[in-house]
Amino acid sequence: MAPGRHNYSNFTDELRARLSVVDVVGRVVPLNKKGQNYWGCCPFHNEKTPSFSVNEEKGFYHCFGCGEHGDIISFTMKHNNMDFKSAIAELANMAGLKMPDYKPRDPNVVKREDALFDICERAAQTYAEKLFTPDAAHALEYVRRRGFSDEEIKKYRIGYAPKNNIIANKFAESKFLIPSGLCRRGDYGMYDFFRDKLMFPIFNAHGKVVAFSGRSLDGSEPKYINTTDTDIFHKRQTVFGFNFAREAIHRANRSIVVEGQIDAIKMQVNGFGETVAPLGTALTEDHIALLCKSNRNITFCFDGDAAGQKAAARACNIVMPFIRDTSDVKFAFVSGGKDPDEILKTSGADAMRKIIDDAMNLTDFLWELTNKNYVVSTPGGRTQAEKFLDAQIEKIADPELRKQYKQEYEKRKFQNWHSWRRAPKTVNIKLPDIDVITKNTLVYIVNKYPELAERYLEFLGTLGVDFDGTAPELNMDINGAEKYLVSLKLQRYLEKLNAQKRELTTQLLAGDDTARDEIKRIDSEIEKFNEKLEVLISI
After folding, report:
1. Which is it for the CA torsion 335, 336, 341, 344, positive or negative?
2. I need a labelling partner for 392 at 20 to 30 A (CA). Which of 122, 186, 198, 295 fits?
3. How far apart are alpha carbons 8 and 243 in whole angstroms?
4. What pairs with residue 225 in β-bridges?
5. Please, which residues have CB within 8 angstroms of residue 52's CB and are 6 or more apart in sequence?
6. H, E, C per residue of 428-457
7. Directed axis angle between helix 379-393 and helix 362-373, to 10°?
8. Distance between CA atoms of residues 317 and 313, nearest Å
9. How far apart are CA 132 and CA 125, in angstroms?
10. Cβ–Cβ < 8 Å for 272, 356
């Protein structure tokens, strides 16, 4: 290794994560995929028969003719006759990254990261052991009810964080409890961040525990809380389940992306080992870049509700710069208000496989998305739709592929838009789901406190509110904002229960005695949640 190269280790790792060796080499060497590798004529010696092999998964190239071998950095250095630092700058420009000022890696930083890995590993062991103790009987019963076998519990290292401060007490001597996100400091000393939670360790790509996701067991919200970002964990760059899925992605020649971590685990154990999920945040470019390093064939599998459709549209927008002529990107939707875990429980792996196999390809999905979002029966609507399509197509890096997409959509526009026949339209007026004051309050909260928006994302997605707008400034701190969201959620749930009761009462009056027990259950639920609402209002 050349002197000083160790100073660049973090940044070169990020470059290798961001840039595919096929993309870097493919800019100067025409490549064709055969089997698992790409092949072309070696740029380092004259040859007519391709003997130059590029492996995207491993990130290396090798010439069987002259023996040249390396990664994106060595290829850039040799092909462009550059020194190491110049090659790094060239690749940084290609990846859209800024070259930082490098200094020798501080041994104290390395020591700190190792200490964080150690405390997370020890915490994972503690939580896993605690799950099988009497104190965790309710947690173990819950996880087994969700269909997890003891073998699966062990594989995914599922555990339990008790109500007391087990981590703060057990590892009190460690200076890294707060930096790890495991503990916080309060008025009375250190306390555990995770208490009475079912614990899912979060692993980095190399299988090291870097953080945790805790699920509530008493019905309280938020349903999941995750470790905040630390020196070794960055939520926007972490794909849940990827460490388990890497080999399966290679074998299946694709990855499947679902919305939640339990969905990802249940998919993996039911024959879809290539499944992963973003972690408590919307899908990001970093997530896609990591997946594309393993395979550019991705099937996004989202719920069929409005929130799922919105997530799919975002995924489509993000994935466009990453597609190549060998990519197979698809979109599948689970309908009926269910998620993959429910489908697997109620209908089995074959039903889930049919949903995945019937997924819509990217070309059709983008076309359908355009037609849903714009009124293509009018000249103005068609103009907006064409601008949207053009903007999406321009994100494609390969000029020939970009040309093919343009030609495909030009043909569709001619066949569909310009032969439009307006169908008779039935006017339906739908009253707003929520009033203007409530809407403005929600828009204010989402924009002012994005951490609350993320925490209550599932609930907010059911309201049909456009949160991209503006709202009047309100005098509301984060505690008041969360209280508002919880109370609104309770009120809407009570409305739902009362609607169910009215329907059942009608059935009872019509002579259906089977509705009586269900009405009693709903009355009990209404009483319980009214008490919760009263307590919340009194705080």
Report:
1. negative
2. 295
3. 25
4. 214
5. 29, 39, 40, 41, 42, 43, 61, 62, 63, 64, 65, 68
6. CCCCCCCCHHHHHHHHHHHHHCHHHHHHCH
7. 150
8. 6
9. 12
10. yes
Q: Decide: residue 220, CB within 10 A, 0-12 exposed, 13-18 middle, 19+ buried.
A: exposed
| Residue the block writes with tokens 């509705």 | 515
CA 393 and chain centroid, separation: 23
Query: How many CB atoms are located within 10 Å of the residue 357 CB?
Result: 10
CA angle 80-82-86, nearest 5°?
Answer: 115
Collapse the DSSP code of 182 into the 3-class scheme (helix H, G, I; strand E, B; otherwise coil) and give the result.
coil
**Nearest alpha carbon to residue 255 among 368, 356, 358:** 356
Unique residue bearing structure tokens 């169910």: 500
The contacts found for 132-139 with CB under 8 angstroms, 24 or more apart, are 133/160, 135/160, 135/162, 136/160, 136/162, 138/217, 139/198, 139/217
Full-model pTM: 0.62
In sequence order, what are the beta bridge partners of 361? 330
Cβ contacts of 38 within 8 Å, gap of 6 or more: 22, 25, 26, 31, 32, 53, 54, 55, 56
- The owner of tokens 């060497």 is 29
pLDDT digits (tens, 9 = 90+) for 253-296: 899 999 888 899 999 999 999 999 988 667 889 899 888 877 88
Are 288 and 319 in contact by the 8 Å Cβ rule? The answer is yes
Distance CA 20, CA 290 (A): 10
Peptide bond into 100 cis (omega under 30): no
Mean pLDDT of 120-142: 95
Collapsing DSSP to helix, strand or coil, 248 comes out as helix
Give the ranges where 300-377 is alpha helix by DSSP (H). 306-319, 340-346, 349-357, 362-373
Non-local (6+) Cβ contacts of 217 within 8 A are 138, 139, 142, 196, 197, 198
Q: Is 70 helix (H, G, I), strand (E, B) or coil?
A: strand
State yes or no: pLDDT of 3 exceeds 70.
no
The span from the CA of 17 to the CA of 13, in Å, is 6
Burial of 107 (0-12, 13-18, 19+ CB in 10 A): exposed
Could you tell me what percent of the chain has a pLDDT over 90? 42
Q: Record the tokens describing residue 106, joined without a space.
A: 């501080």
The 8-class DSSP code of residue 414 comes to: I
Q: Tokens 């005695």, residue?
A: 513
pLDDT score, position 533: 60
Nearest residue to 28 via CA among 64, 72, 58: 72
